[in-house]
Sequence to fold (137 residues):
Amino acid sequence: MKTLFVAYRVTDLDRSLGFYTALGYVELGRVELGDGSRLVILKFPGEPSASLELVHRPSDGRVDVGSGVDHLAIQVDTLTVTLKTLAEAGLEPEPVQYPGGPHGPKTSWLTDPDGYRIELVEWPFGHPDGITAADFS
Fold:
């Protein structure tokens, strides 16, 4: 088994698509569900398949993120370049943090139009992609 993607319900599909495409996602496809409801499937250009689905159901009203979803973590190659690109696109990433100390990962946080939190992560030089069991030993 493997995780296919994460799905977020969104209040304003156009605004959310603008946010996520500025973040670097590209649209893979969409599904019209009727009565104005739509699904848009996204991925990063380097990914082989979908990683995020935006679900828009206007009849359900505004999205209330609540306290159940914590955040989506996204690995980036170079955090300073990513933050500059996002700021130029009108997004407002937070300052760089070093949660593992000066030799650990660099992170920054971003909030989407519905209040979902996104953690941008740059691994230190030599760290493999993703998180593995080696990160906890």
